[in-house]
Amino acid sequence: MVVSAAGGVLAGIAFKQIWKRVSGEEDAPNATDRDFTWTQVIVAAAAQGAIFGAVKAATERAGAVGYRKATGDWPTKD
After folding, report:
1. Are 36 and 29 in contact (CB under 8 A)?
2. Residues 49 and 18 sit within 8 Å (Cβ to Cβ)
3. Which InterPro entries match (predicted)?
């Protein structure tokens, strides 16, 4: 649970930094923000989803590897 929470925080930070560098904007557009185009909204949502998915997978994998190193067993979802 702690690993998932940390992953969410890291993903949020990563997305904000990447979005700022790519777009020059401080914040990504919300779906209902009329100052952005459809393309900008959809690209922002797709990028955010990809970053969150990648960070979630990386943190879960790192947690599993750490668990295995600490216990000698691979964690299972029972």
Report:
1. yes
2. no
3. DUF4235
Q: Which tokens is 36 given?
A: 């952005």
45 vs 6, 23, 29, 41, 48, CA distance in Å? 21, 13, 9, 6, 5
The per-residue pLDDT for range 60-73, each reduced to its tens digit, is 899 899 999 999 99
Q: Which residue has the tokens 């900008």?
A: 40
pLDDT tens digits along 44-60: 999 999 999 998 889 88
Contacts 24+ apart (CB under 8 A), 44-48: 44/19, 47/15, 47/18, 47/19, 47/22, 48/15, 48/19
